[in-house]
Predict the 3D structure of the following.
Amino acid sequence: MGWAIYYHIQNGEAAILRCVGDDAPLVLPETIEGCPVTAIGPDCFGAGGTETEDRLIPAEPDGLPPVSRAEGALCRIALPETIRSIGDRAFARCRKLQRLTLPARLETLGVRAFDQCGSLEHIELPDGVTQLPDYAFSQCRKLERVALSPRTTALGHHAFYHCVALKSLDIPDGVTFVGGGLFLNCKSLSRLALPLGVNLSVLVSDLTNDLDLTVRYPDGAARFFLPGFSYEYEDINAPRMWRTITYGSGQLYRECFSSRDVDFDLYESYFDLALKQDDVKDTVRIAWYRLRWPYGRNRGRGLYLAHVTEHCDVLLRLLMEEEDLEGLEAMLAMLHLTSQQLDRLSALANRAGKVRFVSALLNARMGLGGGADKEFDL
């Protein structure tokens, strides 16, 4: 079994316009008739049909096999380093394609270039790709990691729509445009880092789950924890009249982020409400993030310190989950913990099998004087 590759040559460069084949691995040539292959055309892998052997077929753009709505057969492909552009919907519906290395010379991606690539797990965009088009990775349901080019300037509308497995994203400092619906239905996105100036309000409004948010300023960075929230509609017994009921403080916290900046005072003002509506694990993270990364005005510092000190065991569990020893050092330096609290934390770390955490906590306990009164098998 093989692939039929339809190509067109113009101005000394070859473009691959359509590929028809089965699920056999495909290696695209670097040259055709002595001309470098520089482009992959629109709907390149969207035709149905199978081939018995590999062959190259010259063609005009209006003489190609028709595009099929069926699932693409492509599962593995090697792209030549000569490729500079990938056309609209080129890999759309290639649901068997799991991994792909993009050429370093690539500069242009077309609209919906990887739409519905349901098996694609990670992708790294080369430096030349400065603009991510609309719906670029829409409905890539297994896509967990995306590395954007550090030279990226624009993220198109719905570029990551329904990427339900996407866990984190770092938006480069040069981005000046973010389209609407960028993260709609990105239910697993829990870490987001971006520069000040990107439309924060648009981005965070799409994300109703727990969100670890870092905002980079020219002279530092602020890190926030935004709790997840849910809502439902309640009939208030009037024709077509409904009331929205929101659960959790997360929606209000998201209102602290405008199109261009963060209202730190407003963010601090919601902590009392969070204490009433959110789980203690969430309120400890809210407080801890503002204590550890105290950029901007921080009028709630005293309240945050008291809350984290009272629930230091909850904070320790969070730090152990992330293997964050630096965080433990910051915690011990910042909080005035008693010997009883340190003993309790040491026992907690020991039960969790976190040897380095136990060691650090025992050292802190000994630093209070009188030596540690607990022994553990490390």
Q: What stands out?
A: Residues 280-292 form the longest helix (13 residues). DSSP finds ten helices and 20 strands in the chain. The chain has a mean pLDDT of 91.
